Automatic annotation (TrEMBL), chain A:
One Pfam family recorded for the sequence: BPD_transp_1
SUPFAM superfamilies: MetI-like
Membrane-topology annotation of the record: Multi-pass membrane protein
Protein name: Phosphonate ABC transporter, permease protein PhnE
Main localization, broad class: membrane
Residue ranges of domain ABC transmembrane type-1 in the record: 249-433
TM stretches of this protein: 28-48, 253-275, 300-324, 386-403, 415-432
CDD domains, alphabetized: TM_PBP2 (cd06261)
Subcellular compartments: Cell membrane
From TrEMBL, chain B:
Name of protein: Phosphonate ABC transporter, permease protein PhnE
TM annotation in the entry: 28-48, 124-145, 166-193, 279-297
Localization of this protein: Cell membrane
Topology versus the membrane: Multi-pass membrane protein
Family (UniProt): Belongs to the binding-protein-dependent transport system permease family.
PROSITE patterns, sorted: ABC_TM1
Domain ABC transmembrane type-1: 118-301
Entries under NCBIfam families matching the protein: PhnE
SUPFAM superfamilies named in the record: MetI-like (SSF161098)
UniProt entry keywords in alphabetical sequence: Cell membrane, Membrane, Transmembrane, Transmembrane helix, Transport
Organism: Mesorhizobium shangrilense
Entry-linked InterPro entries: MetI-like, MetI-like_sf, PhnE/PtxC
Encoding gene, per UniProt annotation: phnE
Length: 455, 318
């Protein structure tokens, strides 16, 4: 930038005093606002007791939960106090009732090798000694003295407790060695049994096998075709509950659609009586406007709680809650659109001697219908996004299912599955709605242009 | 109304014919659309009714049972519940233990329980709106087509904001409830993240409509991107930003009430408990308090918005 002399600076200052000598409140306003916000934050930190909450929080759980969204684990336990070492799996193991995975090997000498991640991360053990291999190191754990003892130096990835030696192998899993048992956690990427659960006869079959069974195989369950059986097995998958999830998702979509549409239908005639330029009575307009305010500000949550008490939990209660809230929202926006119309077409229709209803139909409606539809679509879109949340208080839909899956702290993969479905639905409906609105606004645009051309 | 067309020539005749054909075609489309909507309406109504625990027509006569049961024995109990004053009906149950929730601030001076809960809900809304604002402002300048420092960055930020907007708040709340324990902090994170996406979208749409001459002036004197945004663009858009932020505070008060009902603390949680247990006086006190607060916030922010940005602040957007 060019360098100015002091005289030039002075002359500029003299010419524009409003820039250089601003009133106090303008000069210090932003600063005061900033200091005020800062003070508020000190208060908020104190109010929410943030330091203590942060001390007591478990941030180490976040990566753990996030990995559980996209992976699953198998946890065999090998009791060492039985004559023969045999793996035991938890009751609801994803491997099914009789698992013989190829990563658990019984060696010729009776010892067992578990490949947590190939031979590079593995554990080989007998009843007396376990050899853990990971990170290029080999560690011997002896169980002779009645508790596990690590021989030699303990690497950083091994934690030796009194009763247990824990070898952390990172994402792929961990090995826990105690005197009487060895416990392995092996983690896999992806979702286990997403299509067929262990109870299904199609479990652990490759896609080509399943297809050939469906097309030409013998009936696995007499009396039902294989196709129907497969579909049934998928729909009633015990772990993923596809049928239930999809039904609940449909409920959420239906709630938003039904609530918004009914709200629009009820708000439509009411808005005419609330619009000050159309209704003959000022009192009626005021009463209706306050009614709209009431319906909106009682809040979707309260309506949802009220209707779950009245109708019982389910999508009917949710639809009714959205319906009541939408009467308020759409009633307000509709009547505002009506108040903003151009009066000339109405006067034109009025001058032909048409009655009240015909004036609305031919003089007012063509102007506001695109705006009404656009606003309704917008609300529909935003309700599709919001309807999951009132589901959690019992108003039906996927919200409650989501909340329950999260509360158990174990079904994070299920949570992620539902989140993906919700995102997909929201994405689709957002696009439909914005496509329709674009089409509509083009119509409005064309209409305005034609008006302008005709003068 | 009837339309009389006097036939003068073949051309006019054809034009009138074409007009009639077009009109009838459009009427057909409209009728089909409305018919389709009606079918969808009936189908969804049937579906919602089938999937519900109680059915519409069975429950309809009983719909006012709940309301009648909300009516307290003594209307004064509503005020007593609101201000934590002992009720003469106190029989040791939770329904009438009003003074139990008193939070003493100084000697005998106390804040009634429900006011404190309402304050929590309000603070959750304010803090999360602020989080939304702080992140949405820089994001909106990156995401605006006319101001973006880099087109790839713009798409990344836009997609991120879309994701934050569409991601169910309840999932974020649930995830963080498992980390920082159930309470207002999880609610703040959930609503704050959502606000970033929602405000960011509104903000960048404002940015895309600004007058570019100020920006051109600063470019001419060699200002860099930050200086241009700070001195040319921000002053133009700030009133609109503030107006949308005020609108967001209103929305977030509702959102924090709802998140509260599923474990985010504040008045929502108490309201849900009170309704599900059927405490008439307590429920009425809570609803009254919530209603008044939301109404006051609506009025105040409407007044402030009108001052800041004029009538355009009342366009749709959430």
């Amino acid at each position: 930038m060019a360098v100015m002399t002091a005289d030039q600076i002075l002359s500029i200052e003299e010419r524009y005093p409003q820039v250089f000598q601003r009133p106090l409140h303008k000069r210090f306003g932003p600063l005061l606002l900033f200091v005020g916000t800062l003070l508020y934050f000190v208060y908020a930190v104190w109010f929410f007791n943030l330091p203590q909450v942060m001390r007591e929080s478990h941030w180490e759980r976040l990566p753990l939960f996030l990995t559980q969204w996209i992976s699953y684990d198998v946890q065999p336990t090998f009791p060492l106090d039985t004559p023969q070492i045999e793996p035991k799996y938890p009751r609801f193991s994803v491997l099914g009732a009789d698992p013989h995975p190829d990563w658990v090997k019984t060696n010729a000498d009776g010892s067992i090798t578990v490949l947590v991640n190939g031979p590079a991360k593995s554990v080989t053990f007998t009843k007396t000694v376990a050899t853990i291999i990971a990170n290029g190191q080999t560690v011997q754990v002896s169980m002779i003295s009645g508790k596990p003892v690590v021989s030699g130096a303990i690497p950083a990835w091994i934690t030796a407790h009194d009763e247990e030696v824990v070898a952390d192998m990172g994402f792929v899993g961990e090995v826990r060695v105690a005197a009487d048992r060895v416990k392995v956690r092996k983690r896999f990427l992806g979702w286990a049994n997403f299509v067929f659960d262990p109870r299904s006869p199609f479990f652990e079959k490759s896609p080509s096998e399943v297809i050939s069974l469906i097309v030409s195989g013998p009936e696995l369950k007499p009396g039902t075709s294989n196709l129907a059986l497969a579909a049934n097995n998928i729909w009633y998958n015990g772990q993923w509950q596809h049928g239930d999830v999809w039904t609940k998702l449909l409920q959420t979509v239906v709630m938003a659609f039904l609530g918004t549409l009914l709200g629009g239908i009820v708000a439509f005639p009411l808005a005419f009586f609330a619009a000050r330029n159309i209704t003959p009575s000022g009192l009626l307009s005021q009463v209706l406007k306050r009614f709209f305010d009431f319906m909106r500000s009682v809040d979707m949550l309260i309506w949802a709680l009220f209707f779950t008490r009245a109708f019982g939990p389910g999508p009917l209660a949710g639809s009714a809650a959205i319906f009541f809230t939408e009467i308020g929202t759409l009633g307000k926006t509709y009547s505002e659109a009506l108040e903003n119309i151009d009066d000339k077409p109405r006067e034109g229709v009025l001058s032909t001697g048409a009655n009240g209803l015909l004036v609305q139909r031919y003089g007012v409606l063509p102007e506001v219908i695109p705006v009404f539809i656009s606003q309704t679509l917008y609300q529909w879109e935003s309700n599709t996004r919001g309807a999951t949340i009132i589901g959690a208080v019992g108003a039906g839909g996927i919200g409650l299912k989501l909340w329950e899956a999260m509360r158990t702290n174990s079904n994070w993969a299920n949570v992620f599955y539902m989140v993906l479905l919700i995102l997909l639905v929201v994405f689709i409906f957002d696009n439909i709605s914005s496509f329709l609105r674009r089409r509509l606004s083009r119509t409005i645009h064309d209409y305005n242009r034609m008006q302008a051309e005709q003068g | 109304m009837t339309l009389s067309v006097t036939v003068h020539s073949d051309a006019t005749h054809q034009a009138a014919d074409a007009w009639r054909r077009q009109t009838s075609l459009r009427r057909l489309y409209t009728a089909m659309g409305v018919g389709l909507l009606l079918v969808a309406l009936c189908a969804t109504m049937w579906f919602a009714d089938e999937a519900n625990a109680g059915h519409f027509f069975d429950r309809l006569p009983h719909i006012f049972d709940f309301l009648s049961w909300l009516i307290p024995k003594d209307w004064n109990d509503v005020w007593r519940a609101m201000f934590d004053i002992a009720s003469p009906h106190d029989n040791g149950t939770q329904e009438y233990n009003f003074p139990l929730g008193r939070a003493y601030v100084w000697g005998g001076f106390y804040v009634p329980e429900y006011f404190e809960l309402m304050l929590t809900t309000l603070n959750v809304a304010l803090v999360s709106t602020f989080i939304g604002f702080v992140f949405a402002v820089p994001f909106s300048f990156i995401a605006a087509r006319n101001l973006t420092p880099h087109p790839v960055l713009r798409h990344v930020v836009k997609r991120l904001m879309e994701l934050l907007r569409a991601f169910p708040e309840i999932v974020i709340a649930g995830l963080f409830a498992a980390i920082v324990s159930i309470g207002p902090i999880a609610a703040i994170i959930a609503i704050g993240l959502h606000s970033i996406g929602a405000l960011g979208k509104l903000f960048y749409e404002i940015n895309e409509n600004i007058d570019m001459r100020a920006e051109e002036g600063l470019t001419a004197v060699g200002a860099n991107w930050f200086e241009r945004v700070r001195f040319a663009d921000l002053p133009q858009v700030l009133p609109n930003f503030m107006s949308y932020t005020l609108l967001r505070i209103e929305i977030n008060v509702r959102a924090s009430t709802i998140i509260g009902a599923v474990g985010g603390g504040g008045i929502g949680e108490e309201l849900k408990l009170s309704i599900s247990r059927g405490f008439g006086a307590k429920t009425l006190a809570l609803v009254l308090l919530l209603f008044t607060t939301i109404f006051l916030i609506d009025q105040f922010s409407a007044w402030l918005r009108r001052k800041l940005a004029g009538e355009q602040a009342f366009m749709m957007g959430a």
